[in-house]
Amino acid sequence: MMSDRNSQIPPRASWLWPSWLDGWSLAAGLVAVVVLAPMLSVVWLALTASGNIWPHLLATVLPRYLAATLRLMLAVGGLTALMGVGTAWLVTMYRFRGSRVISVILLFPLAIPAYVGAYALVDFLDYSGPLQRALRAAFGWTSARDYWFFEIHSEPMAALVLSAALYPYVYLLTRAALREQSGASYEVARALGLGPWALFWRLGLPLVRPAVAVGVALAMMETVADFGTVATFGVQTLTTGVFSTWLNGGNAGGAAQISGVILALVLGLVSLERYSRRNARFYAQARASRPVVAQDLAGWRGALALLACALPFCLGFVLPVAVMAGHALAKPETWAAAGLGQAALNTVLVAGVAAVVTVAAALVLVYAAKLARRRFAQAVLPLTALGYAAPGAVLAVGILLPLAAFDHRLADFVLAISGSDPGLMLTGTAVAIILAYVVRFFGIAQGAVDAGFGRIAPSLPMAARALGRGPAATLRAIYLPLMRGSVGSALLVVFVDCVKELPATLLLRPFNFNTLSTRVYELASLERIGEAAPAALIVTAVGLVAVLALARSSQSD
């Protein structure tokens, strides 16, 4: 942490060292540079790529990639809104058999990466899968010519899988917004004769629209960032275009230019979401208000509500876990397969280091912004949250190309002065992966840390400062002990997201370096689902720990 000694600059040197530039501002600036540099690098590489291939991209693949990405975003946005808002409304406004349990397990699909759900669904629905085998056995069909079955590798199936994995974003935010509403509003509406549908459309939905907009925007951003799911279903999006242009075509400049289009699309989505809420104002009651009282649903209505809530849960969690567990139990020897233990160790190391670095950097930046007169930190604070909006493939392009050039120059310099070749010290190790994780998930850590700071009464640090404690000592003695829960939650969530991250890991990993996510992708892409199942279940178990912690905290709010 920073030194307690205040940075007192002699008067004669004040023209060399501005009064606002102290150690905390410098640290905040360094964090901001690290987080923003990959995105700025993508823009620079796209504008300065050797050989202008924009005309070629515009005339060939770019319109197709962009159209498919937009269609998928719209489909996922609509489906996640339907699943998330519908389930949140039912479990909040009504009480039916199993509603308390279903309100918790509806979050479980967050534990499963979308690409694992894609592999499981394809395995279940494929010609050789259990569903079609059962159909052929039941009706006596002998080949695919005897019956019709819908196309599995298609955009609608990709949208369905992504929606089943991402709807908890909308569900969680919508349920929290509904629980914050006053129950008196709904009682008055019912007294005025509004039925269930009118109550939802005319009162409930308008009140939770900001939460729905944020959740849908998050789901759409994750859709743009996805690689494993769309690759499984053969959908050519902008992200798959980065992979094919860079890895298959060997055109780094073209990959940077496609990445620039992705970045512009995501930033446009963020701006649109904020613009849509520019004039909306939603205030809580000044006095304590009555919470929403859930109405009882019995008989066929209760059963229908339970079925409506169970469908997305089964598709997003039960089916993937059942398919992967079935393969893992059928071949228990795959748990001792070569490479699984090393992949798990690599995952724990890179995700653990990235989580610690990310949360520590967020603490420095947010605390610098909280200190008086650190206006520079306050100015860069919202910009650093944009890293979460940048897909992993985009960050990989923005990190690897400049870092590789610097790495080669660094190796040449060491060789010149020492006479020994050190090799690639940055891109040849896991440093690039950790850097991508830090940038990608810095916004999550920043939000959690900022919320932790906000829950501490200003009088406590003011008292510490009055007793002569400097900023660093105040952070250690006052803030950190009171923020243990927020810091721990941030570490856990960032760690889990690092474990699940696939595109950045695929592009940035050194030779012969596997994590659990890349192992699942490699084996599943070779149709070796049985061998990929243990790694997929480990990733799911790690994610489930974070989801259970999230469910516990949301239930206690």
What does this structure look like?
The two termini are 32 Å apart. This protein has helices at residues 23-48, 54-59, 62-93, 99-105, 114-125, 130-139, 155-179, 183-191, 196-225, 228-232, 238-248, 252-276, 299-330, 340-370, 375-384, 392-418, 431-454, 459-466, 471-482, 484-500, 503-508, 516-525, 529-556, and strands spanning 94-95, 295-296. The chain has a domain at 19-45 and 340-513: MetI-like fold (Orthogonal Bundle). The protein is mainly alpha-helical. It has a two-stranded parallel ribbon with strand order 1-2.
In short:
Residues 1-17 have low confidence and may be disordered. Helix 3 (62-93) runs antiparallel to helix 4 (99-105), helix 14 packs across helix 20 (484-500) and helix 16 (392-418) crosses helix 17 (431-454).
